[in-house]
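Protocol step 4 of 6: structure prediction from sequence.
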Amino acid sequence: MFEYEERARARGYKVIAGVDEAGRGPLAGPVVAAACIIEPGASIKGVDDSKKLTPKMREKLYKEISAHSGFHVGVGIVEPERIDEINILQATFEAMRLAVEHLDLRPDFVLVDGNQDPKLGIETETVIKGDSHSASIAAGSIVAKYLRDQIMCSLDHECPEYGFAGHMGYPTKAHVEAIALHGPTRFHRMSFKTLAPYRNSAQVVDA
């Protein structure tokens, strides 16, 4: 899981971060990105692609990552209103830039999950399925997914009729039916195709 980090160090880079996001596909809630720098020699058993982990495993690893002196984490959050302004791809890039900016160390090389360059202003390498191949990207994926899930659970308390804690804002049948019944909330991404029928209506719940 450190192959990409070691390869970057062999090229002369000293501070290598991995960055990943959670929440590109949902109809509601923010997109969250997390960047992680893992100091040489530091490791946490079980750090892997967050999608392969149970919620309990993610929570455990999130706490370990947050407490480990050899792990440095930065987080970027972009809210639905901003997503609607600039589109979800650009919002994802913005969240990644914020995550890197919020690190307490300035990286000189960044591994990015996926195949698109978010233009961080730092030397970057994109890694397809990076959360399965790079420990720093995997750590970022765990942090981003855990924090976004916590946000969605909080929104569930505000809007229990939408079931956010169950589907985390993704376009499940139950979620789409809840929107049809109650209308979208201010937490929904009105620029998304599924929300198109509600864009010009007053049926937006001020939750």
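Step 5 (inspection) to follow. Residues 3-156 form a domain with the Nucleotidyltransferase; domain 5 fold (CATH 3.30.420.10).
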